Amino acid sequence: MEVTQMPRIGDMAPDFEAITTIGKLKFSDYNKGSWVILFSHPADFTPVCTTEMSGFALEEEEFKKYNTKLMGLSIDSIHSHVAWVNNVKKNMGILMKFPIIADIDMKVSKLYGMLQPGESETAAVRAVFFIDPNRKIRLIMYYPLNVGRNMDEIWRSLKALQAADEHKVALPLNWKPGEKAIVPPPKTVDEMEEREKSDYEMIDFYLAKKSI
User: Which CATH superfamily is domain 17-149 in?
Assistant: First the structure.
């Protein structure tokens, strides 16, 4: 199988045009002005994928409140995607409104390193890409074919990325919204002394927290 460079954190998300369940889309147009969570699943009409995609669908309106769009992908035809969407709607009462890419030629999967031969050469692993409004990849998660993703961690990661950007801070282990954030360490002696006069929670001069 052809080996391609996998996108990394900090890279520009590769642009592409693809057929999806809401029509033909160009990724850079879809991404413009908003965050995108792009996620792949191994195949339509499979049990773990159905739980995951339904989970995303149930939370889509909440993601919109965080200026975030969803986009799914698998190496299936558009006809399979539409039939699966219909099947899930009939059996579970959940409609997947977000676009699902029909990546039958594996073009997008290869662009994003979603095909990993040690796991499968014909099914995309469970990848999740967090892409900011400037089309920069900010966080990547990979799960194997047989382990579903954790929606709580997807939410925590998105909120952490957005909070870090807004407040110019870093987030500690297990950070959740409402908890204190880490202030960048001082780079000069003057900054160190100024910090000692601040109202930060001082653990040490290089490790200080504040409410955001």
Answer: Glutaredoxin (3.40.30.10)
